[in-house]
Task: inverse folding
């Protein structure tokens, strides 16, 4: 199928007043408002379409006018990635709040992108089912939307047991850069025809199209969940956690927290590291696994005996909210082989031990090799350049260490100057080239979130106006 793109009229300046009138004609005056926050460096507009047709018309207008479009849900990841080259129109899904369909017998649900994860799971719980993902999610900030969860592709501590969001997405509707609505995947789990474009759009951070509707495969809610916690020295807990995982128990999460993060989450006084193991399933299975974990964790070297917590659900909600509460700090995540987590944590400690002006906090998934760390640096205005240079140097050291271990370090939140100094994504050259070719096919005019994954080199050498690139991926 060939999807013809609108003939783009390149505009050097964005006129908010004129744009507001044109957008109001599509979605109504009350659904267009000014936006003057990060990542927009110049006046921009937020527009909230109320239907698929309105989204398509908004994107068609933006494409014809040469406006830069940034899809948004809860507005928590707008500054993700490299600094955007420009931001003209932020298209919000806040009016896309329908849960379209739920088939309990098939374990399938279809929902619009603006529904929050909490709202969806509350509705699914009526039939004893849920969507088993735990992305960064803070109810105090509005809650993670389904579109945001899929667009970022992020999960949390329970990724070890349930997998990332991409494992649960079976279909979606996406508005492409020319304003056309496409359907990818299907409504049932057994759908194997053609390319699996669901995985292409999942984790694309709004750079390839705007996700407006998603189909999920679900799971039954576990009859029982239980969390075992133990505090102590970091290296001892790392070995203890690995011992539990290797003993043929099946925790859905095995999370090790630094003392500072433990204190920030309100889980303990924060004097020692904390190991959390969560079990889920039938009552008998969870009971047996929790008891066995207590036996394996009982060690005379630990400062306190392991125990089953009384606030199981609250612990994991608090942990999921933490990444969003450090949005003004330097936050990075690292993906490694689980066996290399200890090596990287040692390098992390050594990198920061001589930097007295920076406070380090982190948590690590012992089962899936996922690490997130927070650099709470000194914010003295008269030393910002020096502080940012030091932070960039630390990131370069740690990024190199991650690559040596066969992993990758990604900057989630950082000051713009740090992002300009350091590489945000740190992906291999081959991966970067592949991403650019996909972007060139799906968004040749670089309308969606321009610059988030770096430059679009083809725009400097080719003029795509009036041409109809073949989007073979959508065939």
Result:
């Amino acid at each position: 199928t060939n999807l013809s793109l609108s003939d783009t009229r390149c505009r050097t300046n964005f006129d908010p007043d004129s744009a507001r009138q044109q957008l109001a004609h599509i979605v109504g005056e009350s659904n267009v408002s000014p936006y003057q926050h990060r990542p927009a460096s110049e006046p921009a507009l937020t527009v909230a379409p109320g239907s698929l047709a309105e989204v398509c018309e908004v994107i068609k207008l933006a494409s014809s006018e040469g406006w830069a479009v940034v899809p948004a849900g809860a507005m928590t990841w707008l500054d993700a990635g490299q600094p955007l080259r420009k931001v003209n129109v932020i298209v919000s899904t806040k009016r896309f709040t329908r849960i379209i369909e739920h088939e309990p017998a098939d374990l399938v649900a279809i929902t619009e992108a603006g529904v929050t994860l909490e709202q969806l799971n509350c509705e699914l719980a009526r039939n004893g089912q849920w969507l088993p993902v735990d992305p960064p999610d803070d109810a105090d900030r509005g809650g993670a939307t389904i579109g945001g969860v899929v667009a970022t592709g992020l999960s949390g501590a329970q990724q070890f047991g349930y997998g990332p969001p991409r494992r649960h997405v079976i279909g979606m509707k996406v508005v492409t850069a020319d304003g056309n609505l496409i359907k990818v995947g299907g409504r049932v789990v057994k759908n194997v025809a053609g390319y699996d474009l669901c995985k292409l759009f999942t984790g694309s951070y709004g750079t390839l199209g705007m996700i407006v509707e998603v189909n999920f495969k679900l799971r039954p809610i576990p009859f029982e969940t239980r969390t075992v916690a133990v505090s102590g020295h970091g290296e001892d807990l790392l070995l203890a956690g690995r011992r539990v995982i290797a003993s043929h128990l099946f925790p859905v999460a095995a999370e090790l927290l630094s003392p500072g993060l433990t204190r920030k989450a309100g889980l303990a006084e924060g004097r020692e590291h904390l190991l959390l193991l969560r079990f889920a399933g039938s009552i008998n299975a969870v009971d047996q696994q929790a008891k066995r974990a207590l036996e394996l964790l009982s060690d005379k070297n630990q400062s306190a005996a392991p125990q089953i917590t009384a606030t199981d659900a609250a612990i994991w909600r608090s942990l999921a909210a933490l990444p969003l509460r450090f949005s003004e700090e330097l936050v990075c995540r690292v993906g490694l082989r689980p066996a290399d987590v200890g090596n990287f944590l040692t390098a992390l400690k050594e990198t920061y031990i001589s930097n007295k002006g920076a406070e380090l906090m982190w948590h690590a998934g012992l089962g899936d090799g996922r690490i997130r760390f927070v650099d709470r640096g000194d914010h003295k205005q008269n030393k910002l350049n020096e502080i940012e240079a030091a932070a960039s140097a630390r990131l370069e050291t740690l990024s190199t260490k991650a690559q040596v271990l066969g992993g990758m370090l990604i900057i989630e939140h950082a000051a713009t100057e740090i992002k300009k100094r350091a590489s945000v994504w740190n992906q291999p050259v081959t991966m970067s080239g592949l991403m650019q070719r996909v972007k060139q096919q799906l968004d040749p005019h670089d309308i969606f979130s321009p610059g988030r994954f770096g430059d679009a080199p083809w725009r400097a050498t080719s003029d795509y106006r009036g041409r109809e690139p073949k989007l073979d991926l959508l065939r």
Notes: Residues 321 and 388 are 26 Å apart (CA to CA). Residues 327-421 form a domain with the Alpha-Beta Plaits fold (CATH 3.30.70.2740). The two ends are 5 Å apart (CA to CA). The first strand starts at residue 32 and ends at 35.
